[in-house]
Amino acid sequence: MSASAQAFNSPDCQQREHNMSALSGVQWRNKCLDGDVGPIPDVISYWDTPSKVILCISMAIFIALTFTGNILVLTVIIKNKHMQTKTNAFIANLAVADLLVAIVDMPMALITVIEGEWVFGDTLCVLNGFTVVFFLTVSVHTLMYIAVFKYITITHPMSKMLTKTRVGYMIAAPWIWGLIASSMGAFWLSDFTFKPGATQCGPNYPTEAPEHAYAFIIIFSCYFVPIIVMVGSYISIFIQIRAHLSRMKANTTQDHDVIVSQEKQMTVTLLIMIIVFFVCWTPFMVYCIFASAVEDKTTIPHELHALGYWLGYMNSVCNPIIYALRVPKFQDGYQKLFYICKVQKNLPINNEKSRSHSGSEIHMLQAISTTELNLKKSKSVFV
């Protein structure tokens, strides 16, 4: 080993590299080789104050929106029996995965940015890395299975392929693969550790063959396979919808503007699904590929790490908006839920008689709302 390599691999130099300041990895390495490193600080701030404030506010907003949005999705599905369909079973599955991200993973990342270091210990670091891979994998693969489910139901509407048992398998599959993927990282191919400047624990930067293999598995199974399946499914769906609407134009007296509006709504929804997935997950995969390819791991910008993970988290914010708010039945469910809550808040509760009236009025309101929902036609053939 050369003298410069021995100097760089010395304990003091490695400790300083671990606690490097705002200097880039190359600058720090050169200073370490020159012996010009100065005292070792206890805690290094990788973010200046304005950046930390912006990042913390963004994280807090992400947590609040992810928690609220997915709780609303689950509440609407649970409280309305007519919403408990096969399609909504997938949306509920997605909401559970995204909700767990908001409850388990995001708060730890927020605290880590505030403190400037990992403060939860080695055991929770491994658990944090495990749950990050687990829940995000479940979320991504559920999006993929939603695309497959939509493809089958729209392009083969008379098919009996999607039985309750098979739908159950499709809902369970993301959790099974998420468990396998996170277990491979924790117990076999890699280790979950905290990297200086990161916002949470995760797999080691790949240096050995098993770690490179694990990085390839994650990149391929959690990005390329889902995006290929989603794009292929949604292109097929779009073609099928266009053909269906063309037949409607030729064989129906329905207003032409209504048909064009339906076509536009379907096109926008499909484009949003693909674009949001691409925007949220491409930076993370770029980060993973870069971390695997570069030899000097100290040159990996900590900003790229934070951007990759938190844009992935942002997908959990967007999911309840895309897969629920654009669905008319969910919009009706939200209106009914908020209206009932408002009535419950405003009705008098001073005596037994008023409480009896309150219960009767709420029951009547629920019955009327349910009747209205049942009478409404779906506004979109995509639902």
From TrEMBL:
InterPro entries the UniProt entry points to: GPCR_Rhodpsn (IPR000276), GPCR_Rhodpsn_7TM (IPR017452)
Transmembrane segment boundaries: 52-78, 90-114, 126-148, 169-189, 213-239, 270-294, 306-325
Molecular function GO labels: G protein-coupled receptor activity
Signal peptide: none
Record's bilayer topology term: Multi-pass membrane protein
Domain G-protein coupled receptors family 1 profile residues, every copy: 69-323
Protein name as it appears in the record: Octopamine receptor 1
